Amino acid sequence: MIEYAARRLAGLLGVWFLAIVITFVAVQFVPGDPIMALLSDRSGDADLEARLRADYGLDRPLPVQFLDYLAHIADGTFGLSFRFANTTVFDVISGGLLISPILAITAILIAVPLGVVLGVFAAQRANSWADTAVILGLVSGISIPNFAMAAFLVYLLSIKWSVLPVAGWGTPQHLVMPVLILVIPPTAYVARLTRTYMLEVLQQDFVRTARAKGLRERLVIYRHALKNTFVPLLTTVGIIFGGLLSGTFVVETIFNIPGLGRLAIESIFARDYPVTMTIVLLFTMFYSIINLIVDLAYTALDPRIRLTNTKA
Amino acid sequence: MASGANTLLDIRDLSVSFAGLRGSVTVLHDIAFSVKPGEIVGIVGESGSGKSVTSLAIMGLLGAQGSIESGSIRFGDEVLTELSPARMREKRGRDMAMIFQEPGTSLNPILQVGFQIAEVLVEHTGADLQSAQRRAIELMAQVGIPAPEKRARDYPHQLSGGMKQRIMIAMALACRPKLLIADEPTTALDVTIQAQILKLIVDLRDELDMAVLLITHDMGVVAETADRVVVMYAGQIVEQSTAERLFTRPTHPYTKLLLRSIPSAHEKQEVLPVIEGTTPSPSDHQPGCRFAPRCPIAADMCRDPSLSLVAVAPDHAVRCCRLDAARELDVTRAVEAGL
Amino acid sequence: MAAPSTSQTARPGSDFFLRFRRSRNAMIGSVIVAFVVLMALFGPLLTPHDPVKVNVLASWRAPDSTHWMGTDALGRDVFSRIVLGGRVSLIVSMSVLAVTLTIGTVLGMCAAYFGGWVDALVMRTVDIIFAFPELIFAILVAAVLGPGTLTVIIALSMVWWPGIARLTRSLVLGLRHEMFIEAAIVSGTPAHKIMRRHFLPNIVAPLIVRASIGVGFIIMAEATLSFLGIGIQEPEPTWGAMIRDGLSQLRTDPHLALFASLALGITMIGFNLLGDGLRDVLDPKVRN
Amino acid sequence: MSAVPILRIENVTKDFQIKRSALSGENLTLRAVNDVSLDVYPGETLGVVGESGCGKSTLGRTILQLTRPTQGRILFDGNDITRLSRKQLKAIRQDIQIIFQDPYSSLNPRMKVRDIIAEPLENFSSDRSAITRRVHEVMEIVKLPVAYADRYPHEFSGGQRQRIGIARAIAIRPRLIVCDEAVSALDVSVQAQILNLLKEIQRETQVALLFISHNLGVVRYLSHRVAVMYLGRVVELASEQALFENPKHPYTSALLSAIPEADYSRRGTRKYLSGDIPSPIDPPPGCPFHQRCEKVQDVCRVETPVLDALAPEHWAACHFPNVSDKGIRDGA
Amino acid sequence: AELRTNINADPAMVDPITYSELIAGDVMANVYEGFVGLDTEGNVIPALAESWEPHEDGLGFRFKLRSGVKFHSGRSFGAKDVKYTFEQLLIPGNRGGLNAEYLDTVVGAQAVKDGKTTDLEGVTVVDELTLDVRFTKADVLFPIYPFYFMDAGIVEEHGADWATKASAGTGPFKFKAWNLGRDVQLEAFADYWGGAPKIDGVRFLIVPSGDTAVSMYEAGELDVVYVDTQTIRRVLKDPQFKDEMLTAPAAQIRYLGMNQNLYEPFKDIRVREAICIGFDRDAMVDGLYDGAAFPLYGQVTPGVAGYNPDLPAIPYDPERAKKLLAEAGYPNGEGLPPIKVTDTEPNKNDITYYANQFSSVLGMPVEVEIVERGSHIKRMNAGEVPFFPWGWSAGYPDALYFLSQVWYGPSTYNRSRWQNDAFDALIEEAQGTADAKARYALYNKAEKILLDDWGTCPTTVRMQVALVKPNVEGVSLTPFRFLPFGDAQVTE
Ligand SMILES: Nc1ncnc2c1ncn2[C@@H]1O[C@H](COP(=O)(O)OP(=O)(O)OP(=O)(O)O)[C@@H](O)[C@H]1O
Ligand SMILES: Nc1ncnc2c1ncn2[C@@H]1O[C@H](COP(=O)(O)OP(=O)(O)OP(=O)(O)O)[C@@H](O)[C@H]1O
Ligand SMILES: [Mg+2]
Ligand SMILES: [Mg+2]
Ligand code: NI
């Protein structure tokens, strides 16, 4: 187990390196480049372009640029931002570093229990109107575009009733609406999957055994049945994290939160590659660590699963 | 049937059906028998004849597809078929416990077996988890699991078939129930452990006046432990009597043929006598005697739908319309005749 | 021997329809999906207006008797566009689902079943793609490929398969030690067949759920891509793009976003009900 | 019985690592099978009996390469199959089958019985109609109504499920079947039918059976030779007759005397073993049976007895084997 | 009190040297000043220069600078600071931004640019408050170029990276803090020469979504909002904003570029005319822009000096357009090769309209193409885009900005590559004509040449919209966005 974890951790370094390579290569293909974005209307001025290119080191061969980027990763500055003059990438991102993870984790912490409860509720009443109603409710929840939902919430809570701030970051109140928006899709997803897994598990013999033991229904459901759905559910949580961090981009824009999701997209548009690449790298690290935890948790959750990288 | 005031379990005219895609199939028909406290009642019979379904019906665990069509199950002063689910739940595990036939799938794969036993105690005795776990280890020792302190922390897949079965047994016995339903409790056990388990059950019976419904294919086990025996065939009871009478004077042709089919460890048999033919599937049960198609003494009258259990002696009832012929039937010859 | 009874012999497959008819979710879902698909197929032939005909003087009309769902910023008939957009959105989402489900389940099953380096290879690939924020990865892919419908399909497929693969893997990991898998191995069943016949049917339910919930996400993701200028190009309507265009006018002219969302919502509800229904139908242990 | 064994188990040992906690890294080793050597000949039934948990199923599973042995070789037809790759193994799958101890969990809940039974056939043939015919044939052989072919496993009773498993195993006409408690869930009449059937098949096809069972009557009925296992080891190996009539190992004797008889008159005459049941996690030193043995001597507590030929074709691992009536060897 | 307003992204910089984009300009206009400023009508008024005299030969100016002006550091402003600013803009390592371009004609500029010297020869500090500038060729507009003069002592005091630590301007507000992604904060400069601001400071909140900004305004989280084009409709339609709205036409010409080198039929003036009368400006104004725009008939916008209000309207005349096409040999568009009309995503409605209009009215096979902005600009500048709507915003209030940059032959920004010698000659003449009236006449003449040749299709001028809370006074919106908030007042 520990050995496995160690090996996976080592593997992660490889993943991260590859992620760096891939982003680096990919940005070379993205139409437009930082200098053109900088030049804006003045692009076409070949002298100026060449000068700027030289200033930013973009006239050097790609491998050199890549090594340079690696060196900047190593020194912790992650290089200089293109968009912000004389600012290191670290300075650009440090303010918003924790925002997206906080949003994502808060949302997950709410969405998963909520989804599980709803899913269990639906599973227990499979093929009844209550079941159909839960599905309908959840699916309508996710088919309302988050922008629309946000507009509605803002109108109601901020403008009409003035109970919450429209936008910004810093106080717990600022967290309410973004999280509310973020919570809906994963809740729906978790609930739907829970229902499925539960229906499967509820038919197993050991659930009957649990009932035969006279356990309270709550224990039967949550201890015996639900626990057996944790492996795929946990996987789902890992997958949802992927969606969520992207999702934070949307709420960060709507609610004007200075997080990395928003910054990532802005940077892409501004062709601020050092910033883009760094955020991607951070997200990559974040996800892959979450997924590593998920993988390690498999063994804890299901003793039958052995995670062995066969020595062969 | 004996259903005096002092019966613990009294089943009357129980019919159970399973919903299928194309309508429901009745798999139990008018089952009626009773169990007194301290009594061990063996249920034997054809595979698929409804033994497990009977026990599940008693436990109220038929599942979503099964339903009790008619009849009643009385347990002590209460009619189980009318109890609220909550009340039923309280009874399960505490007053009546069940050992399931399939230990492989009946244990929760992701919980430690010791915990699975302890859980019952926590639920019904209000014990704290720690003392319950200690008690679980004791129980595991009682059912003959070596090194129980270590094994308690195993997961089911780490145990052998017999061990899982013993865990099931320990679980069922944990609360010292008034009624123990044991569905094939010892099939996966070697005879020495089997003997130990049976002794444990008998001892508990003696000590607690526990009633036992013992479902098994092992006639030896029945003969050894049961006080009374119910023989089932195709969803019906075809014969029931005291164990002694049943083994010494079996009456129904099926019972007789059944007893003939037991392979013995005391002598080498060249060919085992069998009952030719197959059990009818529940969906095409014919009226009258269901054993008739395979019965060496079957006659036209066997198709009479009014056939019912007839008392042939005190505490001995048989479902056969040709009782005399049945009594006369010499199964040895019938078998040799190749029926 | 007992003659096989008529009640028990049934044509294989007929079970499916019997079960299907029993499942409320499946029935409602399939009716909705059938409606949506038929609209997408034949609707454009029947629409009252030309969906790409611009009339700026008639922009942002509220719904009335000529324009049942009003008009958009360029005065195009929203109803006609929703009907036509459904076609594009469905093609995109169905293609992406087909591609990702295939790749994801196959690779996920291989990873879990073979373990070792196969697992390591697949899962690390998954990790890499997966680790990228979905959108960013899609943007990168799309940016490399240039805009267009095919790009959208490829980009979204690239983003989507790893999730399916991971899910599949975790499900298979849970099944791998089941005795019936060992039984199949012992029967000499080749790996691909074990996957198809033993793993797949036992994991298909959650996959269906994921797929059915994915329909909406994919349609919206397409909108995001086209928003970034790498998606499906004007004047071709897609629901996602319509919703997105309508959002900026939510306070003043909500009908565009509203009706497009409604179309998406109904479709999603249809697919999700159908998905849950299918789950029930595919489960041999029917409940009534 | 031919002289060339179809299956030769050579010094097979199987250890399981039991992880106690991920953090402490504390590991226990459980030796489920300990240095077992056995031969099985074509047309022969080798009965395997023994303590529950003594490693019978594990032995069976190693034969099928469902788990690889920690040590030792398994030769099928003279070829070591422990070293075969997945691909090479496939070829021998046609020849070795297993009937699992746990009938229900070995059936895919989402497959119809028809498909479950057809599966091994389909892997080695593509003639659909022949397969269907064979499926119906074996269903009749195991006394399952053909009408049940389109049902799913959960709709069957325990015994019926077991018959599905048997049908699957015999369908392909293997040369060796490992029967792990193959008939334990069957009522005696069906059991009798199946046993006769196995015998008949064996007579016709010379299939070898490794018959694991707790039911000594059944074992006796079917077996030519019987191996008795205890705590992962073979403690006695002899012909059926010698073993049942003249057991050498005290554990065998204990087993035989514990058999419940369907004879009401003999009720309550059984002998029970007492003493601690040893655990494979920390096996006792010396003879594994010494804690429960009536005849235990000091030497038994220290020295592990080896399998010894006590008579022609009769081996036992005991320091003080039972004296036979023929008096081959004195107990002292 | 503090005035809270919005900007839709982080400024790329907050220093006057590298300054090169709009958002930074919004912020810096409050911190820095040049020779001149604008009044509430958008007219040029003297700021740090009190007056200026052209040199006799027309190749230079002598500026008399305002006395008593203090930098935020407390140092006094003087001629040396102007010279210092000019040099800093030109020194290559400094990456001088937009304002560096205005120095092209200054004597010695090239030498500094080339790194040969750091001393700008053409600029002389005559005395503390007198500055002399000499040109290589006439540049009559030099005094109104929007420079941002900076404190020459700042680097010495705070080091090379002073920009985010200190404030180096003379404007009504001092730079206080910039929280990336959140806000830029300015505080009132009590010693401002024009009188201390009546507010404590200005906070520019970074709000990328225009919709969110208006919602924040509605909820009282912003006092002043510059409404982005996407959100204008919401503001116009909501009666509650009626009394809080400021509007002003943007100083931005918009046109439909037709590159005659890339699409053969454009060489035919009839085709060009057909296109220009083939779409309906009024319909665009009402339909696409919700009335927040005006049809544009020339290439100078109202509010910019030299605007000709008497230009005839360009009609929407599909019949005539068809006829013209037929005369040119393309009846019903037959024979016209396919062409794409190209723009970036935010303008996709416009090109969809054009494409639809030209294909359905004229039968011209036009498709839309949405592209990435940076590369699009590069291709346009390189003259590689055949058919595109685009705009050009004035950097200072004089028509020459449009005419000399967009339509003057040698200009890099002549993206449709229209070329006319007479036009170019008029522009060159105007650059040397100090007299405003005479110059404006030249503009009008040149503009007429351009229009008569249908070298461009003027389209529309967009209207800027801003919202100001009733408790805020003294905020003015000009064609060049907000005036500095120095006169703003917030009452509780
Ligand atoms: N869920 C179910 N759906 C449909 N039929 C069922 C179901 N469960 C059991 N049956 C049927 O009910 C009948 C009785 O089954 P039951 O399990 O009680 O048999 P049994 O007597 O316990 O047999 P065995 O000794 O083999 O365990 C069988 O024919 C079986 O096919
Ligand atoms: N996967 C496993 N992990 C750990 N221990 C195991 C595993 N499988 C089996 N064992 C252990 O190996 C020993 C032998 O098990 P096995 O199943 O072979 O016994 P058996 O002889 O078949 O018993 P039974 O007759 O009860 O089925 C047991 O102690 C069991 O707990
Ligand atoms: Mg049963
Ligand atoms: Mg076993
Ligand atoms: Ni028949």
From TrEMBL, chain A:
This is Dipeptide ABC transporter permease. One of its GO terms (biological process) is transmembrane transport. Keywords: Cell membrane, Membrane, Transmembrane, Transmembrane helix, Transport. It comes from Nitratireductor pacificus pht-3B. InterPro entries: BPD_transp_1_N, MetI-like, MetI-like_sf. GO terms for cellular component: plasma membrane. Belongs to the binding-protein-dependent transport system permease family. It is found in: Cell membrane. The chain crosses the membrane at residues 12-30, 98-121, 133-155, 175-194, 230-255, 275-301. Signal peptide: none annotated. Pfam families: BPD_transp_1, BPD_transp_1_N. Residues 97-294 form the ABC transmembrane type-1 domain. It is a multi-pass membrane protein.
Automatic annotation (TrEMBL), chain B:
GO terms for biological process: peptide transport; transmembrane transport. InterPro entries: AAA+_ATPase, ABC_Ni/Peptide_Import, ABC_transporter-like_ATP-bd, ABC_transporter-like_CS, Oligopep_ABC_C, P-loop_NTPase. One of its GO terms (cellular component) is plasma membrane. It is found in: Cell inner membrane. Keywords: ATP-binding, Cell membrane, Membrane, Nucleotide-binding, Transport. One of its GO terms (molecular function) is ATP binding. Belongs to the ABC transporter superfamily. It holds the Pfam family ABC_tran. It comes from the Bacteria. This is Oligopeptide ABC transporter ATP-binding protein. Residues 11-259 form the ABC transporter domain. It comes from Nitratireductor pacificus pht-3B. It is a peripheral membrane protein. CDD domains: ABC_NikE_OppD_transporters.
UniProtKB/TrEMBL annotation, chain C:
One of its GO terms (biological process) is transmembrane transport. Its main location: membrane. GO terms for cellular component: plasma membrane. Gene3D superfamilies: MetI-like (1.10.3720.10). It comes from Nitratireductor pacificus pht-3B. This is Dipeptide ABC transporter dipeptide-binding protein. It is a multi-pass membrane protein. Residues 86-275 form the ABC transmembrane type-1 domain. The lineage of its organism: Bacteria, Pseudomonadati, Pseudomonadota, Alphaproteobacteria, Hyphomicrobiales. It is found in: Cell membrane. The chain crosses the membrane at residues 26-46, 90-115, 135-161, 203-232, 256-275. Keywords: Cell membrane, Membrane, Peptide transport, Protein transport, Transmembrane, Transmembrane helix, Transport. Belongs to the binding-protein-dependent transport system permease family.
UniProtKB/TrEMBL annotation, chain D:
InterPro entries: AAA+_ATPase, ABC_transp_ATP-bind, ABC_transporter-like_ATP-bd, ABC_transporter-like_CS, Oligopep_ABC_C, P-loop_NTPase. Keywords: ATP-binding, Nucleotide-binding, Transport. GO terms for biological process: peptide transport; transmembrane transport. It is a peripheral membrane protein. The keyword Nucleotide-binding applies. One of its GO terms (molecular function) is ATP binding. One of its GO terms (cellular component) is plasma membrane. It is found in: Cell inner membrane. PROSITE patterns: ABC_TRANSPORTER_1, ABC_TRANSPORTER_2. Residues 7-256 form the ABC transporter domain. The keyword Disulfide bond does not apply. Belongs to the ABC transporter superfamily. NCBIfam families: oligo_HPY. PANTHER family: D,D-DIPEPTIDE TRANSPORT ATP-BINDING PROTEIN DDPF-RELATED, TRANSPORT ATP-BINDING PROTEIN. This is Oligopeptide/dipeptide ABC transporter ATPase subunit.
